[in-house]
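User: Predict the structure for this protein chain, please.
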Amino acid sequence: MFGADHGELAARTSATHQARDRHSQACAIARDIGVPFEEARAREGVGRAHLQDGDSGEAAAHLGRALSIYRHIGAHPAARRVQETLHQHRLPASTLEPGTTPPSEDHPRQPPAAPSANR
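Assistant: Here is the predicted structure, written as structure tokens:
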């Protein structure tokens, strides 16, 4: 649904860039219309495409987000499938949002600024 099937087909034919694009489109649509299972399924597809390309950081981020959604909605078989993929590839379930990088020691993450009292 939402193009995820097209993404899965592209991934099977080694067209990983196209697979990521299709899954990303499906993810955006699912998120916009509020269908978390399909969002997680699409994120899982993006993560698998990144695995095929050897980008373990992005793969872990997308798979970790998919895992979080699956757990939140009680999709236990899907959550186990993602956990197995993460374990098989020795990846942690990333707590980073996909596309971000962890803070370096030179630039530690700053806490959010306190709200202004001058309102």
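The chain has five helices and no strands.
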